[in-house]
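Budget justification aside, the reviewers requested a transparent look at the raw inputs and outputs of the sequence design task funded under Objective 1. We therefore reproduce one unedited record. The lines immediately below are the structure tokens for a 179-residue chain.
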């Protein structure tokens, strides 16, 4: 007789997502990744240069924590349904370390976004960020890149420039060239 597969409720999945922020992002406990993410998870908005799977997840949060050592994310709202969890969150931190090739400004930033997670067998299988990149660029004073001509010029196959392209382009422009 075979053992039945465990059943994960929306509440179980919500607890997993809370651990992402309570233990991993906010506290820097990278060991949590191996406990709550599927090894082949897909992050649809990783930090540029991130490898695939759980190593990419670690790379992305390590990069954010390098740029913003006091990084803290607050979950403002959470909704869990079947194998999906959706959160609205606020990211806060002080830009005191290098981030995407940009020199630190020492400024405190705050930005918001929505993240959709898909879990399978109690593990995070996929992640989508909605508005997180554009909100972060705005908070870094680079919002003009997303709405200006630079973002339109960077369109490739229907996609805009990624965050690394935008940061590199911003660094190449002088203040007089900004819209």
């Amino acid at each position: 007789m075979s053992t039945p597969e465990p059943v994960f409720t929306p509440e179980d999945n919500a607890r997993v997502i809370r651990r992402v922020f309570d233990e991993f992002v906010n506290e820097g406990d990278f060991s949590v990744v191996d406990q709550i993410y599927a090894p082949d998870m897909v992050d649809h908005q990783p930090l540029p240069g991130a490898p695939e799977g759980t190593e990419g997840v670690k790379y992305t949060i390590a990069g954010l924590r390098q740029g913003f050592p006091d990084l803290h994310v607050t979950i403002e709202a959470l909704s869990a349904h079947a194998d999906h969890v959706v959160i609205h969150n606020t990211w806060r931190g002080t830009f005191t370390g290098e981030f995407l090739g940009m020199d630190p400004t020492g400024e405190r930033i705050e930005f918001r976004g929505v993240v959709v997670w898909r879990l399978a067998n109690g593990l995070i299988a996929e992640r989508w960020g909605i508005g997180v990149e554009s909100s972060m660029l705005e908070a870094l004073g680079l919002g003009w890149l997303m709405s200006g001509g630079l973002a339109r010029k960077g369109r490739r196959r229907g996609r805009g420039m990624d965050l690394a392209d935008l940061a590199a382009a911003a660094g190449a422009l002088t203040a007089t060239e900004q819209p």
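The longest strand covers residues 108-120. Confidence is low (pLDDT under 50) at residues 148-161, 166-179. Computational costs for records of this kind are itemized in the attached budget.
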